[in-house]
Amino acid sequence: MSTTTPPGAPTTTTTGTPGVLGDSADRPDGVAKVTGNFAFSSDLHLEGRLWGRTLRSPHAAARIRSIDTSRATAMAGVHAVVLAEDVPGSPTFGMEHRDQPVFASEVIRHHGEAVAAVAAEHPELALRAARAIEVDYEVLEPLVDSEAAITADPIHPDGNVFRHIALRHGDPDGVTGDVVVEGSYEVAMQDQAFLGPESGLAVPDGEGGIDLYISTQWLHVDRDQVAACLDLAPDKVRLSLAGVGGAFGGREDVSLQVHVCLLAMVTGRPVKMLYSREESFHGHVHRHPARLWYRHHATSDGDLVKVEARIVLDGGAYASSSAAVIANATCFAAGPYRVPNAAIDGWAVRTNNPPCGAMRGFGAVQTCFAHEAQMDRLAAALDMDPVELRLRNALATGDRIVTGQVITGTAPVREVIEAATSHPLPDAGPDDPRVLPGGTGLTARPGDVVRGTGFAVGYKNLMFSEGFDDYSTAGVRLERGLDGEPVATVRCAAAEVGQGFHTLALQVVRSELGIERAVLGPTDTSIGSAGSTSASRQTWMSGGAVQAACQAVKRRLLVRASERLGVAVDGTRRELVALRDGAVVEVDGDGRVPLADLLDTPIDEVHEYHHPPTEPLDEHGQGNAHVSFAFAAHRATVDVDPELGLVRVVQVATGQDIGRALNPRALIGQVEGGIAQGVGLAVMEEMVVEDGLVRNPSFTDYLIPTTLDMPEVVASFVEQPEPGAPFGAKGVGEPPTISSTPAVVAAMRAATGAALTRVPVRPGDVVGEDGGVADPAAGPGAR
Amino acid sequence: MSSEILPTTEPEAEPYRLQVNGREHTVASSWLGESLLYVLRERLGHPGTKNACDQGECGSCTVLMDGRVVCACCLLAADAVDADIRTVEGLGRGEGPDAEVDDVQRAFLDAGAVQCGFCTPGLVVAVHDLLDHRPEEVALGVREALSGNLCRCTVYGRVLAAVARVRDERREGRGGGLADGGPGGQQGGVET
Amino acid sequence: MLADEESPSRLLEACTRRGIAFLRDGRGAHVRWDSGSRSDPSCRDRRPRRRGPCCREGGATLTVARPRDLDAALAALAEHPDADLLAGGTDLVVEVNLGHRRPSGVVALRRVGELQGAEITDDMVDLGAGVTYAQVEADLADVTPGLAMASRTVGSPQIRNVGTIGGNLGTASPAGDALPWLVALDAQVVLAGPDGSRSLPVADFLVGVKETARRPDEIIHRIRAPRVPGPQHVAKVGPRNAMAIAVASVAMVVDTAARRVRVAMGSVGPTPVRPLAAEEAVSSAVDWDALTCPADAVDAFGAACAAAARPITDHRSTAEYRRHAAGVLAARTLRRCLSE
Lengths: 783, 192, 340
Hints:
Strand content of chain B: 5-15%
CATH topology of the domain at 1-17 and 410-463 and 623-783 in chain A: Aldehyde Oxidoreductase, domain 4
CATH superfamily of the largest domain in chain B: Beta-grasp domain
CATH architecture of the domain at 1-17 and 410-463 and 623-783 in chain A: 2-Layer Sandwich
Order of helices and strands of chain B: EEEEHEEEHHHH
CATH architecture of the largest domain in chain B: Roll
Number of helices of chain A: 17
Structural class of chain A: alpha+beta
CATH superfamily of the domain at 1-17 and 410-463 and 623-783 in chain A: Aldehyde oxidase/xanthine dehydrogenase, molybdopterin binding domain
Number of helices of chain B: 5
Strand order of the largest sheet of chain B: 3-2-7-5-6
Number of strands of chain B: 7
Radius of gyration of chain A: 27 Å
Strand order of the largest sheet of chain A: 5-9-3-16-13-14-15
Largest sheet of chain A: 7 strands, mixed
Radius of gyration of chain B: 18 Å
Largest interface: A-B, 88 and 79 residues
Distance between the termini of chain A: 32 Å
Oligomer: heterotrimer
Largest sheet of chain B: 5 strands, mixed
CATH topology of the largest domain in chain B: Ubiquitin-like (UB roll)
Distance between the termini of chain B: 47 Å
Number of strands of chain A: 33
CATH class of the largest domain in chain B: Alpha Beta
C-alpha cells in the first residue's frame, strides 16, 4: 500500500513528550546543543594535556630528501616530534586498502600529505614547532590528469588504477536505437565541509593502552587502524564517540586518529588535536571529481534501448573507498529506468590530486548529473516532454537494473516523479534584491532575470554492497530505576553525527518495550561494531539491532512473567502472554504483572543484526550486489541573470521514497539539508585544484549556501513500506543529494539555453567562453 | 574570578579582565595573539561558542559585544576589555546540564532546527540579537540578518521556521503553540 | 548507579570517570589528570621563559596598548614601532589565527575618540576611520547612499559590526568593498603622524595590492568625501548571494552639479580602476537636463569600462569574466542611475 503524504500533514509533538516510532520525538541531545553544553570533540579538556599539530606537505608530488627536527625538538614547551620512523606498527592505514602512510617518509603524493606531528603546551607553540621542522623536498611533476593516470607510470606500488568495472548487460554490441544522443560531462570536487573541525583527545592509560575521544563515522574501523599502526592489541585501544559536528562521508576515513594517539603514547600525556579549517580541507577525503561520457539509445517512441558510458573518477593519492564509489557510480549510471542493454566502463584512478572517498551520494551523484542531462537531451531529440520520458521508462518492482539484479523491494519511481511535479510552481518573487540573482550586490533588476524549471530523478543503494556484511550491534538493558519504574538503556556504537540516530534508538525502545523511560549508554568500542554512519544505513541496521535486542529483552520478560502467572509463554500458534501498557498480561485471562515487578534483576541483551547477504559483481558487472534501493525526484526553479551568469535557486520540490516516516521532524531536516548540498554542488561548491594544489582551503573561497542562497523546499513523501526493512523504513539521507543537482542545472539550461555540462556551474559557463551571452530564447524556456 | 592558569607562549599579554555574561574574569597570563574565541573556550570555561573556521566566515563563534553580534574569532581577547560580552551560556536560565531553555532555544528544538548542533549556539545568539532589535522582522529580513551564520546540516529551513515561531509567540505575548511556518513536517518552505 | 533522568551526554559521565572534563566554567569541572608514578619523568612541565621588557608593569612597553585618544595612540605606536594597528580585527586577528602574522605588540584603536563619528556639512562628509560598515548602513544611507550599498555587501552582519572604513583602506585589498566609491568621489584620506597631519587622495593612498602610502608611524584618522548631488549606485558581483568577495564591482555617482559621471571599478586591478576616458565620453553624451543618455552611448560606456579594466585570473574567477562583468555592471549601473 502506498500513501503519498501531502504537505503539512504529519504529527509533531508540541508538549515535549518523548515519542514512539512515527512521532517527531525530541532529540535527547537537543537541550545540551541549544544551551552550548553539548561536548563536541573539540570541547574536551583535560588538565595537563598537550596540543598536537601536523606538518603537511606544500607540494603535490615530491621526494623527501631529508627531515631535520632539531630546531623543533629544541623549542621549550615542545614535548614530542614524531615522524614515520616513530610509528611502531603498520606504517600505512586505510579503510579498504592500507595504502596510505601515517606519515610520508620517502615520497609525497598529494598536497597536504602529513609528514610529521608535534606535541606542545600551547597551540601556537605547536604551530611554530611544526613550522620549525625542516623538510628538504625534491619537487616532482604531479600526475593530475585522471585519464592519463590509467596508463601513466605508477605513482604508488599498488598502481594507478584502484578499480575498473566493465559492466555489460543484455546485448550492448548487438543493438542500437533509432535516436541516439551523446554527451560529455564533468563534476568538480565537492567537499563535505562539515562545520565541526577534526578534533580528538587521546589519553594514555599508563599501562600501554590508550583511550581516544573522537569525532568519527565508524568507531571500530578507526580502532582497528589505530591498533595496527601503534602495534597494540585491539582491546588496548578504546574509542569513545565525542560530539560530532557533521560528517557527510568526510569522517569515514582516519584523519588525526593515529597521529594524536601516537603523540599521547610517546609523551605519556593526554594530547588534544584540533584542525584549523584550512587543515580540515587537507585532512579529509573529498567527493571524487568525475569525467563522464554517455551515449543513450532509444526507440522513436521513447523507450530506452541501450546506455553506453565511460566514467572516470579521480580518486587522488590514496585508495580510501574509491573501489566502492566507482561500483556505485557504475551500478546506478543508467538511472532509475528500464535499460535492457548497457555497456558502462567505470574507472577509479590514482593521481597526485587530493585523496577522495565517501561523500553523501557516493558515486551516484556524479552519474546522476550525467544521465539526467542525457535524458533531457533525449527528450529534446524525441520532441517529448522530459517528465513523460522519465515516466515512460521508470523502474518498478520486478524490473531488472543494469547489474542484472531484479528489484524485489519497493520501487515507487513513478510515484516520486508525480509527487515532485505535483507541487505548484513558485510565484514570481518580489522586486527585492535579496531574491534576485546577485543578492544585495544589486547587480540585477527584475527585467534582467529569466526563470527556468528543470527536473531530475535518481536512486542508489542502501547499506553496503557486493557481499560486504556491514552488520550492527546493539545492547538493551532493562532494569528498575531509582524511582522503581522500568528504564531501558540502549548501547550502540552507531555514530550520531547530527542525523538523529540517537533519537531514533530511543523511539525504537519505547515502541518495542512500551515504556517511556529510555536512555542512551555511551557510544564506544566496548560493544561490537555498528558499522559506518553512511550509505543511509543506520536506521535499518542499527535500528534493526536495537529492535532485535528489544525483542530479546521482551522475550525474557515474557518468560519471567509466565513463571509468575503460571501460564506458558506460547500456545500452539499464538502468544499467551503479551507486553501491554507497562505490564505483561495474560492474553486469555486477568493475570497481569507490572514490568517493574519482573526486574528484581536487570535483563541485558546484546544482538548483532545482519542484512541478507549480497553478491559481488562478476567480470561483467552483474550480480545481486545490493540489499535495497531508494529513489527520489526533484524539480527545481531558478532565476538566472543570463548576462552576468548569476543564479538564485527559488524552489526545489521533491518526492522521495522513504518506506515509512519514523520521525517527521527529523525527516524534513535530512531532506532539506541534502537538497542544500545538491544545490551547492550545482552552483557554488568546488575545491579548486591546479597542478595538484588546493587553491581554496577556506570558507572564504570554498562556498556553501547561506540563508540567502537556500531555496524554498517543498516535499512529499511516498510511504510504501519496504519488505525486510526493520520498520519498513528506508534510509533518507542520500537521495536528496543525488537528483537535486541535475534538477537545478536543468532549470538553468531552460532559462539560458546554455549547455551547462559541468557542475558547479560558474557564471562564465552561462555567459559563454568568449564573453558572449547565450541566447535565452534558444532554450526550451520555463515550464 | 581568575581563569585557569594554562600554558602560554611569548609574547604574552599583560593580565586583563573580561566581562562575560555579567561576571568579571581575570586572564592572568595569555599569549598576545589569542582571540576572544580562544580565551572564552580554553581559559574561561565557556566552550559553548564554536570554532568552525577561525576566519569570520561562518558565524559559529557569534557572541554579543555591547549588544551587537560579532565573531569572537575576529576579536583580540586582550582588546575585548571594557566590553559587555554575552555568549550562549548567558541565555536561558541556570547553567550547566540543568539549564532551562529560553523561547528561542525551545523554538529551535521544536522546529527541528538542531542536527549536529555545531552552528546552533552562534545562530541562537544571532536570533536573539535579531528579535531584540527588530521584533517584527519577517522573511527576507530574517534571512539577511542570519546570512553570516552557516549551517551545513539543516541549511536554514527549520531555523527560519523557528524564528517565525518565536516572533509570532512574542508578538502574541504567549509561549508554546504552533505558529505559521512551524514544524509542519513536509511543508519545508517558509515565507520567502 | 543509574541517573534517573535521561542524560543527554553519556560521554560526559564516561569522561568524568576518567578525569576528563567538558570545558566548563571553572567551578570544580577541571580535574587534574592523574599520571601517578607511571608518567615519563622526562615529560616535566617545561614552561617557556618569560620575555623581559614587554612584561614590565608600570608604563613600560606594553604588548597591548588601548589608547583613548589620538595622541596616546601615536605615542604607543612610537614606543613600539613594530606593533600592529588593530581596528575591527577582521583582517589582523584572522591573519594571526591562520598563523600568517605574529604580532609583537598591538595598538588597539577602537577606543580612540578622534576616529569615531561622522561630521556632515552641506558639501562634505568627514568619516572617522573607525566608523563601521554597520554604522554607515544604518546612519548614513541618505548621506552616502553608495557607500551604504557597498557596506551592506561586506561579509556578514557580524563582520559589519566591527569592520571599519579605515580598516578597509589600511588593508587595501583589490576587492575592498568601500574603495571604489571613495575613488569615484575623489575622496581624501587624512593621516595622523607624530609630526602632524597630512591628507592625500584615496587614489594616491592605494598604491598596489595590499600596499598603501601610510608610513609605519601614521594612523588613518579621517576620510573626507565630497557630498555630490545626483544618483549613486554600487553593484558587486560575487559567487554567492551573501558573504562573498567581489569578483567585480562598480561604484558610480552621477554628479549633476559638475555634470560628470563618476565611476570606479573594483576587483579588476591591483587598486580601483577609474576609467577617466570612459567618464568623459559618457559625460558628454548625457542629456543633463533630462538626465537621459542614448542607448548606444550607454553600451559604449560599458565597453569602454570593460576595456579599461586590468583584471587577473585567479581561483575566484577568470580575467575574461571579470572584464565582461565590469562592463555589464557599468552599463547597468548607469541605466539604473539615470532612471531613478
